[in-house]
Write a structure and sequence with these properties.
- The chain is mainly alpha-helical.
- The chain has 11 helices and 2 strands, in the order H-H-H-H-H-H-H-H-H-H-E-E-H.
- Helix 3 crosses helix 7.
- The relative contact order is 0.14.
Length: 315
């Protein structure tokens, strides 16, 4: 991938984000996973070994298919001297910075106007937890956690894979990430069939998650010009980044909690099921809508740093 096509993809994401009404490959991958789950998984769901084997095959096969489709499309376009255009568009679809910022901004604006019901609906679009009865502080916590985690999944990780393997590798990663979000759960009935997707997602996010966390801490030092925030972010990252159930998601969340001076984690509800997670960070500042603005600003700054690093790698 060239620096020009990579920067073009970043510019398209910055300008257009995820236009509503335009088909997105992730949604297509999601529908394919749903179809496979209905068609094949049901018969094996009560046979742990068979379910795990099917899950591993899916975790390897679907990303490989995505890689081959994107690679073939680029090579075919090369025959018309337009391979760089196809790769730029595929790279654009792999990024989600503008879409993440837009969703977080919708939550912030609703809270700033005192529209709690609208804020609950808005945050429900970006989190999997139950949001119908969340108070403002929990809405803010959910949004900040999502901005931190998605800074890796939706921005830094795709940029990382674009830099080292172009659009085909980025879309292999996006497929793994989509599989993990849909079936990579520890609870029944996905415990076995989602095992392979969850483990592969952990491996692919190991480096990007830690890079994201470091970039958030650096961004806080630039944005706030406060060494205490940087030190708090670094200390929280080192001491509490491993408390999250995921080996990766806790790193950006810990960095964000430390530099914002807030406490993340706690009680979440998923379809009525209560899940208690360890808390991360110290509650030095209130979880109000101002924290969302700060988190989004740090996300943009960390993303810009990631783009700069990726350009250097590609060059």
């Amino acid at each position: 991938m060239t620096v020009g096509s990579f920067l073009g993809a970043c510019a398209l994401d910055l300008i257009f984000g995820d236009p509503r009404g335009v088909p997105h490959p992730v949604r297509g991958i999601g529908r394919l996973i749903e179809w496979g789950e209905r068609r094949f998984a049901g018969a094996w769901i009560k046979q742990p070994l068979a379910a795990r084997i099917i899950g591993v095959v899916a975790a390897i096969g679907l990303p490989a298919m995505s890689y081959c489709i994107v690679w073939s499309a680029i090579r075919a376009a090369d025959l018309l001297q337009s391979g760089w255009v196809v790769e730029m568009l595929c790279a654009f679809w792999a990024l989600a910075a503008r879409d993440l910022a837009d969703h977080a901004r919708s939550v912030r604006e609703a809270l700033s106007r005192g529209q709690i019901e609208q804020a609950r609906a808005a945050v429900g679009l970006i989190v999997g937890r139950d949001t119908a009865f969340l108070p403002e502080s929990e809405i803010v916590r959910a949004t900040v956690e999502t901005v931190a985690e998605s800074s890796c999944d939706g921005i830094v990780a795709p940029i990382f894979f674009l830099a080292i393997g172009g659009a085909p590798l980025a879309w292999a990663y996006k497929t793994v990430n989509t599989l993990d979000s849909m079936i990579g759960h520890k609870e029944a009935p996905y415990r076995d069939i989602g095992w392979g997707s969850a483990r592969l997602d952990d491996v692919m996010n190991w480096i990007p998650a830690r890079v994201t966390a470091g970039l958030i801490v650096i961004a806080a030092g630039i944005r706030f010009a406060d060494r205490h925030r940087v030190l708090d972010g670094g200390r929280t990252l080192v001491s509490e980044g491993g408390k999250h159930p995921s080996p990766n998601s806790g790193r950006p969340e810990a960095a964000m909690a430390g530099v914002l001076g807030v406490r993340l984690g706690g009680i979440n509800r998923y379809n009525g099921r209560v899940e208690s997670r360890p808390t991360i960070g110290a509650a030095r500042k209130p979880l109000d809508f101002h924290r969302i603005s700060e988190a989004v600003t740090l996300m943009w700054m960390a993303s810009a740093s990631a783009v700069g690093l990726a350009c250097w790698i590609v060059w």
